[in-house]
Amino acid sequence: MRLVLLSGGSGKRLWPLSNDARSKQFLRVLENQNKELSSMVQRVFGQLNEVGLGSSTVIATGKGQVEMLESQLGKAVPLIVEPERRDTFPAIALAAAYLYTKGEASRNEVVAVLPVDPYVDTAFFKRILDLEALLDRTGADLALMGVKPTYPSEKYGYIVPARGKHGDYIDVDHFTEKPNTALAKQLIGESALWNCGVFAFRLNYVISILESLGLPLNYEALSKQFARLPKISFDYAVVEKAKNIVALPYEGFWKDLGTWNTLTEEMATKQIGKGIISNDSENTHLINELDLPVTVLGVSNAIVAVSPDGILVSDKEQSPRIKEVMKGFDQRPMYEERKWGSYRVLDYSRYSANNEEVLTKKVVIKEGANLSYHCHHMRKEVWTIVKGHGRYAENGVIRSIKPGDVVIVTAETLHAIKADEALELIEVQIGSQLIEEDIDRKVMKWDEIEAACSQVRG
Questions:
Q1: Where in the chain is the domain with CATH 2.60.120.10?
Q2: What is 340-456's CATH number?
Q3: What does the alpha-carbon distance between residue 428 and residue 38 come to, in Å, rounded to a whole number?
Q4: Which tens digits make up the pLDDT trace of 78-98?
Q5: Cys staple from 373: which of 39, 42, 114, 443, with CB 3.0 to 4.6 Å?
């Protein structure tokens, strides 16, 4: 069996920690077995490795999440990178083409698709393995896994069974999206299951759809023609057209940690970062990513979340409203993790007199990592090294850098930096338009950068 994890999301429901660059699956607020803070995606991959599925898993994602995934999981996990966001059917179709032409999977191989961030026991992933046998037994087009409901929720979709029962699975009659409480009670009485977004099919099922659309089966070719794929969800494009769908009940622990009130229920500690929570502040959580201390006095049943993107103080039960409240609020992400380290925006100003922007960042580069050999067209940068030692490449010359050194990088200057030990620097960008897209990469790997430079100075 092959697994495809879908990684997306814009990160509005867990603002201000999540943003367009850091969705909820990347927040390091859960505790792993070593009592270290870890993210949902790191937790899931640990569980997949426990059941022997880690090596057969790929992740379908967008360009904006590649460096975050590589930072948290390393480069061993294959990433299927969508050239543009076109909903779940194109993402899954591209992953199918990858498995078929790059992953050497046969058309008869079973592929299971699921979200990248379920908060579940390891038994959940063991149950997914049973989908392959269910497809063998029933000859169904699709096999789903649904969670046995524990209460009549209005937040989830329901998988509704056809009349008549089988021993350990159901024939699917239809789906009901987010019913009211009365209808949810009725559906539970009819043995309906929560739809947790897990389904399996034989690879040939999706490959045949690509053939019927006249699209290439080769991964690289399909990636180049990605815009020809219909912009539609897998549910509408495939599931609703399938003639024979079965579902497997899962009765273990499953929880959607998509809002602050549900996420804090699973956190091992009520405080992350600098601050004080008074003893009479019951059931209150503080998550502080800044160096400034935050004090919470006599406030119960609340979430206080502080990041470079903003500050949230909310009653926990009211916290799901944040997505609606923040609608229309648009700002650049103030913190991002990259495969080489991370950066945090410290200050931003626009000066109308000369129509210039000034952006100040604190940049952290992990030991042994390097920035690409690149240039900018619309800005200059001033770097002040504050910690660590490394090497700096500029227009063919490499020299050592140390704390106290100041580097001025003018527009069109090719430059790169490598951390021989963990480096911290303050970067000031000055230009007419300060955007992350203003980067022209020439070389990525440091040994190739050294080969491209003619001089090396001590």
A1: 340-456
A2: 2.60.120.10
A3: 31
A4: 999 999 988 999 999 999 999
A5: 443
